[in-house]
Design goal:
By secondary structure, the protein is an alpha+beta fold. The chain has two domains: about 5-115 and about 310-320, 2-Layer Sandwich (Beta Polymerase, domain 2); about 120-300, no CATH class. The protein has twelve helices and seven strands. It has helices at about 25-30, 50-55, 75-80, 85-90, 105-110, 120-145, 145-165, 205-220, 230-255, 270-275, 280-300, 310-320; strands at about 20-25, 40-45, 60-65, 70-75, 100, 175-185, 190-200. Strand 3 (about 60-65) and strand 4 (about 70-75) form a beta hairpin. The longest helix has 28 residues, at about 230-255.
Length: about 325
C-alpha cells in the first residue's frame, strides 16, 4: 500500500538526497492510525564526504514540515539511538512493509538494534509516558477539577520540571531552602494557593527570571479555561492517553524482552478503544498505574546494560562509513 508512496511528485525533493533509510513512522507504524492520520516519514541520509573534510557546517537534519518528513545524518541518527530516543528508536523497529527505502547501511543498523538497547529505555520511554500523563492530568484539571485540586496539579507539574531538569530550572539548585506549600489563600479569588519560601544568594538575575517566566507560563496555561474546541480537545486528550499506554508497552518490551516492537498488534484493540474515547479516564489512570508497576519491575530485573557499549557502537559506525 505504501511502497508506491514515493512515486508521488511531491516527494521528488528526496531524489536530491542520498537517503539511506526511510520508513513510515507515527500512528501508522504503531497500528493506531485513523482515517485522518498523517503519513509521517523518518530515517537518515548519507552526508557527503566533504562534510568531514572541509570546514563547512554539517546539516544534521533535513525536515519537510508540510509532508511530515524528517531525515537525520547517519551520525546524528546513531546518536539518537544511543540515547534511546523514543521517536528515533521506534523507527528502527518498524514492520518491513512500512520501510519505503533501505540500503546496506540501513540494514546494518536494523540488524544491530541490540547494540542500542539499554536501561536508558526506562528513563526515555517511561519519562516520556510521565510527560504524557501530566499533560492529560493537567488538561483535565484545567477544565473540571475544583480550584484546590488544580493547585495540586500545578505543584506536581513544577516538581516534575525541577526533577527532570528542564532548561529554565537548570540553576534552581542555587536557591537555598526552597519549599513549596499549599494552604488557605490570602487572596479572595482562590480557596487554596501555592506558597513558595526560598533564600536566594549569588544567583544570576537572568537565571532567576527564566525560572520565574517558566512558572508564570504554567500558571497562565492553567488559567485558560473554557476557551477551546472541546470536541477537538477531547480527541487530543484521548490520543495523549493512547500514547501514554503505548510508551509503557514499548518500554516493557525493550527492558524485559530486549526488542523494539513498534507495531502494537497485541494491544491494538485496547489502544484504539482509548483513542476513540471508549475507555473512561478512571480506567486509563488505573491502567497507567498498573503498567508503571510492570515497567518498574522490568527495569529492576532487566539484564540490559545501564548504558550502551560505545566501543561497539563506534566500531559499527566506522564499519558503515568505510562501506
Amino acid at each position: 500500500m505504501y511502497k508506491d508512496l514515493l512515486n508521488d511528485e511531491k516527494y521528488d525533493f528526496l531524489k536530491d538526497i542520498k537517503v539511506g533509510y526511510l520508513t513510515i513512522a507515527g500512528s501508522i507504524s504503531y497500528g493506531t492510525n485513523i482515517a485522518t492520520s498523517d503519513i509521517d516519514l523518518r530515517g537518515f541520509y548519507h552526508e557527503g564526504i566533504d562534510s568531514y573534510l572541509t570546514i563547512g557546517n554539517v546539516k544534521e537534519e533535513i525536515e519537510n514540515k508540510d509532508l511530515d518528513v524528517v531525515l537525520y545524518t547517519l551520525k546524528k541518527y546513531v546518536k539518537l539511538l544511543v540515547q534511546c530516543n523514543p521517536n528515533t528508536i521506534e523507527t528502527i523497529g518498524t514492520k518491513p512493509e512500512h520501510i519505503l527505502y533501505i540500503d546496506e547501511i540501513g540494514q546494518m543498523l536494523r540488524d544491530n538494534v541490540n547494540l542500542f538497547l539499554s536501561k536508558k529505555a526506562y528513563i526515555s520511554f517511561a519519562g516520556y509516558a510521565e510527560a504524557q500523563l501530566r499533560r492529560l492530568e493537567n488538561a483535565l484539571a484545567r477544565d473540571s477539577y475544583p480550584q484546590p485540586e488544580k493547585e495540586k496539579h500545578i505543584m506536581k507539574s513544577i516538581e516534575a520540571q525541577l526533577l527532570n531538569g528542564e532548561e529554565e530550572y537548570k540553576n534552581f539548585n542555587k536557591i537555598n531552602e526552597v519549599k513549596f506549600d499549599i494552604r488557605d489563600s490570602e487572596n479572595e479569588e482562590y480557596e487554596k494557593e501555592i506558597y513558595i519560601s526560598m533564600d536566594v544568594k549569588d544567583m544570576p538575575l537572568r537565571d532567576f527570571l527564566r525560572i520565574n517566566s517558566g512558572m508564570s507560563n504554567m500558571l497562565r496555561n492553567y488559567g485558560k479555561l473554557n476557551k477551546r474546541n472541546h470536541k477537538k480537545d477531547e480527541a487530543h486528550l484521548n490520543k495523549h492517553a493512547m500514547h501514554l499506554m503505548r510508551l509503557y508497552y514499548m518500554a516493557f518490551d525493550i527492558l524485559k524482552n530486549h526488542e523494539v516492537v513498534t507495531y502494537r498488534e497485541k494491544e491494538h484493540d485496547f489502544l484504539m478503544a482509548v483513542r476513540n474515547g471508549e475507555v473512561s479516564y478512571e480506567e486509563i489512570f488505573r491502567k497507567q498505574r498498573e503498567l508503571k508497576k510492570e515497567v518498574d519491575k522490568a527495569y529492576e530485573e532487566s539484564t540490559l546494560p545501564e548504558n550502551v557499549d560505545m566501543k561497539a557502537v563506534n566500531n559499527l559506525l566506522l564499519k558503515m562509513y568505510n562501506r
